[in-house]
Amino acid sequence: MHVLMLGWEFPPFIAGGLGTACHGLTKAMDRRGMDVTFVLPKSIDRSQSSHVNLVSPPPPGAPGLEMSGVDVAAIAASAVTPARESSHAAGAVGETSPERSDPPLVEVPFQHVRFIGVPAGFANPYQRTPGHQPAGQWVVRRGVRTFIAEDETPEPDDMVTVSYEALRKAAASGVSASSRVSPVAHAPGEDYGGDLMEQVNRFARFVVAATRHLKFDIVHAHDWLTYPAGLAIASLTGKPLVVHVHSTEFDRSGVHVNQRVYDIERRGMHGAMRVICVSQLTKNVVVGRYGVPEPKVDVVYNGVDLDPTQGDHTTGIQTRDKIVLYFGRITYQKGPEYFIAAAKRVLEYMPDVKFVVAGSGDQAKNMIEMAANWGIGHKVLFTGFLRGKDIKRVFALADLYVMPSVSEPFGIAPLEAMAHDVPALISKSSGVSEVLIHALKVDFWDIEDMANKIIAVLRHPPLSKTLKEHGAFEVRRITWDGAAHRCDKIYHDVVAGMHGPALASG
User: Fold this and answer.
1) Do 107 and 57 fall into the same domain?
2) Fewer CB in a 10 Å sphere around the end CB: N or C, the chain?
3) Domain of residue 68, CATH code
């Protein structure tokens, strides 16, 4: 069976947990020998992509591109344009001829998974547009005083990543550092402007055009950004569609949802033959708020990749302070204000603690100001968005990981923390709390309970040791291989339901 998988991000193009999930799931599918073609949008610098054969998108203003709504028929009609046929075998990817440029192939170490990168302007659905501070500068706070420090190596998209050495120096000097943040406060539900909606529509058109010569049995679309593309392909080919719900608009915006996003989500869920949710918590939302029939919805928990080297801690910050870590996007959904409030409470009893906020997002500036106004700015370190080895290093520093999410469909970070031998304190309002036993749990709004449990782990080594040992053992059973097996069974059930029992799994 050949799976056509649609996603909005994939390493190294990651804005949130969606990219991590897609990477882990496809790696596990590859190990199972499953045949997967993965299509994603990304901005590629042609001068840096000699290993990729690119397909140019239709120019702006071409016929069929001025579509304002999410109309599957219009998407399909505008995406499939007349093209010369070539002698290439159907499904060939990465080859070129004078007559046609095939979809670009991204070379990655997979045996059964291939990647098509649709060249499109990449819009980040998780972070709002950065503010007006000059690129390449840091906001550094010492107490309530603010000054600007130059960074000579700003990264693409105006994103500056703190280095491990900078984190170490900041901790040693008592300086709180953050990457660029937006000075403009946004209300929940304002993440999605017309530009992102147009990117979603363009992606749908390009996906149909890019995959028109491929053979596949089922379409698997990850999150709302790819649902229009999945619906269009299913409509054109008659192949079954499965949508994967990693989060909903209610998770991202609370009750003040963006109606356009909600409508896309609902249309995708009802247009699919099966809906995969990352937790029972998310399934309840899908059934209750989107009106999807309960038998149509499956729960497939995320997993974690266990790296044998993860337990090898690198040299940490040279200080007697304990380190409490927040790792994730700094947004309303993740509850960073509760983390800062708990930090203030903990520091009243344990002054030898530092709180590291690793991530970026629209609430970063507010969190920096909150810590400064409460007089704990020198105890709260803002690292900005971390990548690669810096992620392992920040886990190596931590004595405790805290996830205070207001609404968390799943939450992969606690699994990563426990895989790095870091005890975890997680919100009860999370999908991962359904599968974890050896993690402390708290209501996100209960600052006193959160502070008490942080203090308990830091003050009582036997508790910390027990959580580490049992947690490390527990995460071994929460794997991407299990998730891939569940998806494979769903695929076979769906296809068998359309074409009879011949392809049904045993």
Assistant:
1) yes
2) C
3) 3.40.50.2000
